[in-house]
Amino acid sequence: MHSIEDRLRATADRIASAMDSLLPPAQGPEQRLLEAMRYAALGGGKRLRPFLMLEAGRLFDADENALVRAGCAVEFIHTYSLIHDDLPCMDDDDLRRGQPTVHKQFDETTAVLAGDALQTLAFEVLADTATHSDPQMRCLLIAGLAKASGPHGMVAGQMIDMERGTEAGDTAGVARMNRLKTGALISWSIDAGALLGCAQDDARHALARYANDLGVVYQMVDDLIDVAGDAGEAGKAVAKDARAGKVNLVTLLGVETARQRVRLLAAQAQNHLAIFGPRAKVLSEAVDFTLERRY
Amino acid sequence: MHSIEDRLRATADRIASAMDSLLPPAQGPEQRLLEAMRYAALGGGKRLRPFLMLEAGRLFDADENALVRAGCAVEFIHTYSLIHDDLPCMDDDDLRRGQPTVHKQFDETTAVLAGDALQTLAFEVLADTATHSDPQMRCLLIAGLAKASGPHGMVAGQMIDMERGTEAGDTAGVARMNRLKTGALISWSIDAGALLGCAQDDARHALARYANDLGVVYQMVDDLIDVAGDAGEAGKAVAKDARAGKVNLVTLLGVETARQRVRLLAAQAQNHLAIFGPRAKVLSEAVDFTLERRY
Questions:
Q1: Which of A164, A236, A264, B172 has the largest count of CB atoms under 10 Å?
Q2: Cα separation of B146 and A128, whole Å?
Q3: Res. B228 pLDDT band, cuts 50 70 90
Q4: What letter would DSSP give residue B63?
Q5: In this complex, which of B119, B128, B135 lies closest to A120 when CB atoms are compared?
């Protein structure tokens, strides 16, 4: 039996190798753009979203090639969002996964364009017949990813995150921001796995509840790392919200209450998997992994 | 008989009204993002790409609703590219269509995010069943738009434009840059009209040649406006290439030779329409309009 860490690493390698094939080779007068796309997309990362998609799809014996390609698409979107989030006009971060951010390694111009092109590539991959033979399925994936990542999802969450000032803030507002900024893409990843496996409605709904709780756990652990983590271990700047005078769920609730809350939510996420029995063991372990991560 | 200007204006109004319905209402904590998207997308513009798509589609009696929605998608992509091109780290422009650019009217953060979200919205619109009942058609549109606008198209052209320094430059390299930066999206617009009209291969190929020549005419006229135009009349900064020490086809060929060349190309574009007979009158007039525009 492989540990969850082994499985995550194996999936991360597989996704990185598939992303490598899907990214254009870095050549021609536009080489700098393509190098920056590759630098950002292939420079490590847990590949948690593709992992969740693959494991959700495997519950229903979905086609592995389709899962890997759709997993690459969500990782291209995630990568583009990190490049743009790190820009000087956003979070102004110099470090990502322990490496210089794209605008530091290249420049701002290249960072904006590499993010733009990675977004386009995600949709190009999903629209390709190689992803799935049924165009109806491909359209469902594209529509879902667009909804999760665009003005109704991730980008809206990022706007709210950038806008919120030092005012007290309320838990409901912060929770909605998190749901848009990180929850929507995590939820879509899991739903895409179920879709590709042609899952029944009750199974999709159980997974949607699991995904929702897991998304909150993920964000609260992120906030705990920001509040109480170590930059060296995290591979990125910490205490960013505090320095920006921003509240998050951890500063609103206090570290101890937040730790309690996150453990409760993790247990609740795992309970939603009950209908799948032992088949959902890996998705259940993914919750523990998310809860215990330090970076 | 309506003049080409009247037809352009009527189409522009129709596209703007459809874009208005497709854009999310500006409300909620993410209001600033949605306001910036609306400001950029609804703030005027000739809507030349949707116009060409509609007129190409009408040659084959394509469904008008499908043409309008796909026209909105290309205009969302075009708008996102203008917002990002105007950023301080790109062309650093304060003025667009005679109005403050998005980062001037709002700020850089909002401009990056509004561009990102408009790109996503374009693919969301195309993936929607309301655009076309056949998912195969929707996937073809999405794949084509992604190819024309992403790392194989528009964004690559923009990267080359940003990278090129003050070295002499050669005509072939500048021509390729133009084909990627502006030609690809114009060509896709026209091809999408033909696709939606289920045009035969020979008709599609004739339109592709027309589109290619028209794209060069469009870019050369742009360069002529930059070299010899007036900022007030153009509604944007002029002499930008000269100030940046960059070459373009007009500076490479000289104004008079460029004017001759562009007239020849315009005639050639019109000749490609011969197989359509008088039905293609508007597409032919669109060439004259492109040739004679001053802004």
A1: A236
A2: 11
A3: confident
A4: -
A5: B119
ipTM of the complex: 0.96
Q: Hey, where are the domains in chain A? A: 4-292
Q: Would you call A116 and B120 a contact, using CB atoms and an 8 Å cutoff?
A: no
- A49-101 tens-digit pLDDT: 999 999 999 999 999 999 999 999 999 999 999 999 999 999 999 999 889 99
Give the residue, A75 or B225, on which the prediction is more confident.
Answer: A75
Closest by CA to A153, choosing from A124, A130, A176, A119, is A176
Number of Cβ within a 10 Å radius of residue B208: 14
Query: Could you tell me the two tokens for B89?
Result: 């780290």
- 3-class SS at A207? helix
Mean pLDDT within B174-188: 96
Q: A4-292: what CATH class?
A: mainly alpha
A162–B contact, CB cutoff 8 A: yes
Which run of H or E residues covers position B179?
none
- pTM (2 decimals)? 0.96
Question: CA B18, CA A40: separation in Å to the nearest integer?
Answer: 36
Quote the Cα angle for B106-B111-B113, to 5°: 125
Residue B243 structure tokens: 């100030």
Identify which of A80, A135, A152 has the shortest CB distance to residue B136: A135
Q: What is the pLDDT of residue B244?
A: 79
